[in-house]
Amino acid sequence: MASTTLFGILNKKTKALAANVIMARTRTYCFLQNPVRRNCLHSRINAIGRPSCSVAPVLQQWVKEGKTVNEFQLQRIIRDLRAHRRFGHALEVSKWMSSSDLKFSSSDCALQLDLMGRVHGLRSAENYFSSLSDQDKNVKTYGALLNCFVREGLIDESLSLVKKMREMGLPTSALNYNDLMCLYTNVGQPEKVPGVLLEMKTNGVSPDRFSYRICINSYGARADYNSMEKVLQEMESQQHIKMDWTTYSVVANYYIKAGFNEKALLYLKECEKKVGKIALGYDHLISLYASLGNKDEMKRLWDLQKAKCRKQTNINYITMLGSLVKLGELEEAEKLLEEWELSCKTYDFRVPNVLLIGYCQKGFVENAEAKLQDIIKRRKTAIPNCWSIIAIGYLNKNNMEKALESFKEALALQAENREWRPKASLISSILSWLGENGEVADAEAFVKLLRTKVPTNREMYQALLKAYIRNGKEVEGLLKCMKDDKIDEDEEMMKILNLKEQNS
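The structure corresponding to this sequence follows.
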């Protein structure tokens, strides 16, 4: 179904916390405010939200104004940008720093290497590592290169690099072992993770929270719950480790997926004891209780979150809305959306989109469209994804005219989000319907609009050919355009043209 990927966001499980050790230490749930509240360099760079816009002019202007900048200031900016997954901007600042007269340590080199790999790929990261001085080729930069190999899922290269580090006498840290455990997790070999943890302990390296959590995750993924519990108990017995809510939420999530609800509840209570004032922890708890169908606990935790945390962010509202929608509580979700609208400073359409998806899931696409129209009447400019949700809703009800109409609205709004890309399955369904049922003018108008967002492809021409042939229009000019676009006739295209011959 065309809606599988889109509607699946409401059933999002707890994230696999072993996916990437370095990035696991930062969260991407905070979103930067565009208004600059303070006239500082950090605020100016934060205000550059679009990835395609360079931050170099901001740095140059800062210096031109005679204002000072030091390495600690830039390091903080780089860390913040990286934590928010603005890798390109973080790399720009790092390069600017390295080309200046400021001190650029091996730690800074390691971070630049990691960013190079994320932005330009592994080859660029390797070239950068090769260009470093022998003094800068230390445990930090080797560790960063190892993380690049792990991110690419390169087992042999990762193991070879770890071996080289040992031969050079470089100290092996928990982070290096965690990288290897992440590697086996990411390539679908979780059974190898416990062996790495054992080797780690044998070599006198104390596992940290991430080490134990990755191993717990590996056992949970294989439904080995006894071993999962044993590792958790060992982790709890370590004096140097402070237990956190995240580990208990991982264990609870596996028990929920296995249907062991009593066990899950036990660890959800342990999780809640550790949450404190961490809003993200409450989000996880609310989502997990939603998986158990426990609305009362969801509402209790939502009230606790509001009481204990400084403020509710858009992400917090999205979590609670998604959980209510998951339980089919659409009226309560409506009320919660109204509460958010009264408190929000900027209208983030990701929040109402949760409710739009909920309506469409239940087959109430007309309600979803009415809600969207109501929002637009209040002078809120929709984003393409809003109308894409409506289009998928109508598609699932086989109302292709409305699906086409809604999708055209989405395409017309692409200036509001240039990074937005329409769902390929939705495009295919509408093109197929136009080819089989649409008028030539409608097919041509849709393809013309579609080309502003999607490269011209064979599927577009197939739809046009079918519409032309069915309506008795000559196809020679269309075939010439297809040739000019370097699109060859395939087997499906030949079948369509043979249909023309049969109808002649």
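The longest helix spans residues 106-120.
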